[in-house]
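Try this one yourself first.
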């Protein structure tokens, strides 16, 4: 039976907008801390999430990452509309003439390429770009108060990348179009029914259930999980997805005597001898 007891999180780094903590047994938690705007992200938030994701990726003690929002009311409500300029989101809203951009693109790609499972822990709203964040995560554990949906066409935006493609793969093209074209909110039960989230639990159990799922994964082969993630993402992410899977295969190939023969022959300035390696059927 997996231990679902509560975790004593240790803060590794408290950023301006993000709290980054470890469980002590292999789980990293990245929490957006902007509850006053339902955890909407500004560029700074996304830059900090990127840094935390790099740390969690590079830390060999970490096997699974949780992405969440502070409080019970929201996972994330998407881009902070107060810092939305005419050319993207602004790092310095005092200077609206600056060129904005979409920092969230980097976070989405980083989560997809990160070779460890990322679990979205969703209480309350997952809306707009915040909903796309839960889509790009590998698994989602939702509380019974979760409300999910897209709002782009209502506020003058859209995410036709992962926001449309992954959604369509998850819930089917018709339902994905409904979600984007009508901008409705869906409750946790509806989200579960259409395959948008993996499970729904009472709000009070959200963290213990999420941690339980993470601990189940921590008991499994990290390499198998890594290759499964790359395999699932390969077709959805096009050449970048195939590259990830291919490079993972190369990573494993490097440890074989066959690959080492190529390296050693080069260093010894001799012709490589691959004759002892089987031409597998
Ligand atoms: C999420 C809501 C449906 C909740 O409604 P509710 O009535 O419960 O709460 P309030 O509306 O009163 O919100 C409380 C408080 O928070 C502020 N707030 C909420 N969301 C945001 C936000 N996204 N930005 C800024 N501020 C926000 C709200 O103003 C209130 O503040 P007070 O001071 O008045 O108390 C509802 O809040 C809602 O609909 N929110 C807006 C959702 C939204 O428009 N999100 C942005 C969509 S676009 C997007 O996310 C996006 C970002 C990108 O970077 C992209 C990049 C590339 C492609 C596409 C992108 C993209 O679409």
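Now uncover the answer:
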């Amino acid at each position: 039976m997996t231990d679902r007891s509560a975790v004593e999180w240790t803060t590794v780094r408290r950023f301006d907008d993000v709290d980054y903590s470890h469980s002590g047994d292999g789980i990293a938690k990245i929490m957006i801390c902007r509850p006053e705007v339902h955890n909407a992200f500004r560029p700074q938030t996304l830059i900090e999430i990127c840094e935390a994701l790099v740390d969690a990726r590079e830390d060999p003690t970490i096997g699974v990452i949780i992405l969440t929002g502070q409080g019970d009311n929201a996972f994330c409500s998407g881009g902070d509309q107060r810092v939305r300029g005419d050319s993207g989101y602004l790092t310095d809203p005092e200077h609206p003439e600056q060129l904005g951009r979409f920092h969230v693109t980097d976070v989405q790609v980083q989560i997809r390429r990160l070779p460890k499972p990322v679990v979205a822990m969703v209480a309350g709203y997952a809306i707009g770009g915040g909903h796309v964040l839960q889509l790009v995560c590998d698994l989602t554990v939702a509380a019974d108060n979760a409300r999910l949906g897209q709002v782009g066409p209502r506020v003058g935006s859209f995410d036709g990348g992962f926001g449309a493609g992954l959604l369509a793969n998850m819930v089917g093209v018709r339902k994905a179009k409904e979600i984007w074209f009508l901008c409705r909110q869906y409750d946790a039960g509806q989200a579960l029914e259409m395959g948008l989230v993996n499970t729904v639990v009472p709000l009070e159990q959200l963290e213990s259930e999420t941690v339980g799922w993470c601990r189940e994964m921590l008991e499994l082969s990290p390499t198998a999980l890594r290759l499964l993630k790359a395999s699932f993402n390969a077709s959805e992410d096009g050449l970048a997805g195939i590259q990830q899977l291919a490079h993972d295969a190369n990573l494993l190939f490097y440890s074989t005597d066959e690959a080492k023969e190529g390296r050693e022959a080069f260093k010894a300035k001799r012709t490589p001898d691959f004759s002892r390696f089987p031409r597998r059927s």
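Discussion: The mean pLDDT is 97. The first strand starts at residue 10 and ends at 14.
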